[in-house]
Each structure stands twice: as C-alpha cells, then as structure tokens.
Design goal:
Largest sheet: 5 strands, antiparallel
Strand content: 5-15%
Strand order of the largest sheet: 1-2-3-4-5
Number of strands: 7
Radius of gyration: 33 Å
Order of helices and strands: HEEEEEHHHHHHHHEHEH
Number of helices: 11
C-alpha cells in the first residue's frame, strides 16, 4: 500500500514539474512567438499594397466586419495601412463560398481611393489544371485585377457582362473570385472604417496645421510677418520669450473667438470687429502683464499694445480663423504663436550669448526666483560682440535663420515651394 502511495506521489511530483516547466517555457517564449507571428503577418500584409506608403503596424489594425454583400453574415478581417496618421490603404481577408469545389480564401489590397493593388488566393480546393489557375505561380490571371477601381470597374467575368476574363473550360472559379473582389468594396464603407477614416483625417488635418505653424509656413521664417517685434525685442532671450508668449496668447484666443463668431459677421464690418476683439484682448493682456510681470512689461514697452496691429494676428484672423472651425482655428493660433515664439527665443538667445556672454539673464522676471538658477554665464561680457545686441545683429541673425530654414527645406523636400500663404514682409 505504501509503495502504491509513494509511486502515486512520485508520479504527481513529476507531473507538476513537467507542467511547471511547460508553463515557465511558455511565459518565456510566448512574447517571441507572438512577435514572430506578427512579423510574418506584417510581411504578408505589406506585400498586398505595392506602391502604397505606410508607417504603421498593419497587423495590429485588424477589425472584424460583417456585411451581407460579402455573401454571408460571417465576420471578416479588415486591416488598415496608415502614413503619418492618415489612412493610405486597406487589406481585406475574406472567403467566397461559390468556388467549384469549396470555399476560397482571399486577400485583397487596395489604396485609399479604392484602386486594387493586389489580389491573392490563400487557400482553395479547385480542380488541378483548370480552377487552380487562380494561383499566382500557375497563371497571371490574378494580375488582371491590379489597377482596377472598386468604384468604376464591373466585377464580373466577361461572359456575365463584366470586365474580367475567365479560364478556358472553367468559369465558376473566376466568377466566384471576381464577384468576391468586387464585393470587398463594401468593407471600405462600414461604420467602423468610416469612423476610423474620419478620425484619421481629423488627426492628419490637425497635424498639418501644427506643422505649418511651427515650420512649413512659419510666420517669421517663411511668411516674414511680425518683423518689428522680431527685430526690436530680441536683444535678450527673456524679452524675446515674453513677447512670443504674449503674442501666442492673443493669437490663440483671438483665432478661437473670431472663428466662433465668423458666421454672424457681415463682410463690411468683419475687419473692424476683428480689430475690436484684438484690442480688448491686448488691453487685458497688457494689464495682466503690468500686474504680474512688471519688469517684462517695462522691457517690451510699446510693442505690447502694438500686438493689435501685428500682421501675424490680423493675417491669421483673416486668412484662417474666419474660414475654419473653432478647433482648427485654436490649433492654428496656438502653433503659429509657438512657431513665432520659438524663432524669437532662438534669435534672442543667439544675440544675448554672442553680445554679452550670458544666457537667460533676468529669467526670474518671467518665472520668479527659480529663474535665477537657470541663468548661465558663458564668458565675460567684456568679450562680447556688441553688434549682436544692436539692431544690425537682429537683421544678421534673422537672415542666417531664414537661410538655414531654406537649406533644410530644399534638401529635405527637394526644393518644395514656399506655402501659398507666404506674405511679403510686414511689421
């Protein structure tokens, strides 16, 4: 009896050890196995979109969709390719039950405009020598789908009045695949896809607005607007940053307000209302700065009230806020202001360092006593280049930054033309 118990316990212990080994091994390898499976799936899916650019992990975008136009009520897989947050293509994994000898498993890749990029048969049971010509290695028939539009082409075999050939002695198989590929157009317009595309388009739109404000259509480096404060207050990094942040605040709020009331304004009073809104905002800002950052207020002087007439503010109000939604106008104001602020800060930093040997001197005027710890002395002010903090230094520094921007643009984008919003220089 004891021997039986001992044998049972021994067997149980080895069973537990075996289970433990398998469990530990599974924990250690599951991540690698999944990664390899994702890699293979991504490679397979990527091959379905020749000529379509994307930078996302397509395998991770799978959505399950159901539509009667696909021939059944089963769930099918839809993958989405994206570039920079914008949808560029779709890959549809589905089945047709109309094959001659059974189900046919398919992948169809299309660009976002509905142009078929590739069709691949993954599994079939069609007759060797006849229906199996749907395999890429046995005929070029599947290539006849490439370049066809899901919206405009007639996805039927020519025998049924469509645009596609069938096989000699075999019509059922090509008919099934042709109609299945045509039916995949409904996958692009499911509720999930429409929602994803709207979301992607919105993200892409806001990213474009942000990029334009910061770089592509930078108000100073590209449009050459707001040059008076750019040249006048950038003799130090702190003054430049203070002016930039003040302008950003006014630009963001004014864009938002003007967009909100744009549909209620008659054309003949539109500009006057813009100026009144700006005057109210700037006066309020002036009072706030005088109360909380009096040193910066004194240093900036007349350029604070002159924000009302700043070409950047008026220009964005007229060219953008009066024509776009509140959200878009807010984003444009914020990032146009930040782009302006960054340029001012860089010019101010360069001039201050070269001219005085210091950087962020007087930063406590903006953020309090903590700013004293950020001040840096690089070399003695006696060794500074005086012209850097004089008006000519502002022109020279701005010129170098504009040239640098143009060089980067010409190299990075093959000489992309300046944005159509570019101005002609304005104070």
């Amino acid at each position: 009896m004891k021997d039986k118990i001992r044998s049972g316990l021994t067997l149980g212990i080895y069973a537990l050890l075996s289970v433990a080994l398998i469990g530990v091994t599974n924990q250690l390898t599951s991540g690698y196995i999944k990664a390899e499976a994702d890699r293979k799936l991504t490679a397979e899916l990527s091959a379905m979109l020749p000529g379509v650019e994307f930078d996302n992990n397509i395998a991770g975008t799978c959505r399950l969709i159901k539509d009667e136009r696909l021939g059944d009520n089963a769930l099918h897989e839809l993958y989405t390719a994206e570039k920079g947050g914008e949808v560029t293509g779709f890959i549809f994994h589905y089945y047709t039950h109309k094959g001659y000898s059974g189900d046919i498993e398919l992948l169809t890749g299309t660009s976002v405009d509905g142009t078929v990029r590739r069709v691949q048969v993954l599994k079939h049971q069609e007759t060797p020598g006849l229906g199996d010509q749907v395999e890429e290695g046995k005929s070029d028939w599947l290539k006849s789908f490439k370049g066809k539009s899901l919206q405009n082409a007639t996805f039927k075999v020519k025998k049924d009045g469509g645009d596609f050939d069938s096989f000699t002695g075999a019509t059922i198989t090509p008919r099934a695949i042709t109609e299945a590929v045509g039916g995949s157009r409904c996958a692009r317009w499911t509720r999930e896809v429409r929602s994803a595309m709207r979301r992607t388009e919105m993200i892409g739109k806001y990213l474009t607005i942000a990029k334009n404000g910061l770089w592509n259509s930078n108000t100073t480096l590209v449009q050459m607007l707001g040059l008076c404060p750019t040249l006048a207050v950038t003799n130090s990094a702190v003054n430049a940053l203070g002016m930039g942040l003040a302008t950003t605040a006014v630009l963001t709020v004014s864009n938002t307000l003007i967009s909100a009331v744009r549909k209620t304004l008659r054309p003949e009073i539109r500009i006057a209302v813009f100026v009144l809104i700006l005057a109210g905002l700037v006066t309020s800002l002036e009072l706030v700065m005088e109360a909380f950052v009096p040193d910066i207020y004194s240093a900036l002087g007349i350029f604070i009230p002159l924000i009302v007439t700043n070409c950047i503010i008026i220009g964005r109000a007229e060219s953008f806020a009066s024509r776009h939604s509140v959200g878009e106008s807010f984003t444009d104001g914020l990032f146009s202001g930040l782009g302006f602020s960054i340029v001012l800060f860089v010019i101010g930093s360069i001039r201050e360092i070269i001219g005085t040997g210091h950087w962020l001197a007087g930063f406590e005027q903006l953020i309090g006593d903590a700013g004293k710890n950020l001040q840096t002395v690089l070399f003695s002010s006696d060794s500074g280049v005086l012209i850097a903090i004089l008006p000519p230094g502002a022109f020279i520094t701005l010129g170098f930054l504009v040239a640098l921007h143009n060089v980067i643009e010409s190299k990075g984008k093959d000489g992309r033309k300046v944005s159509s919003e570019a101005g002609h220089g304005c104070c």
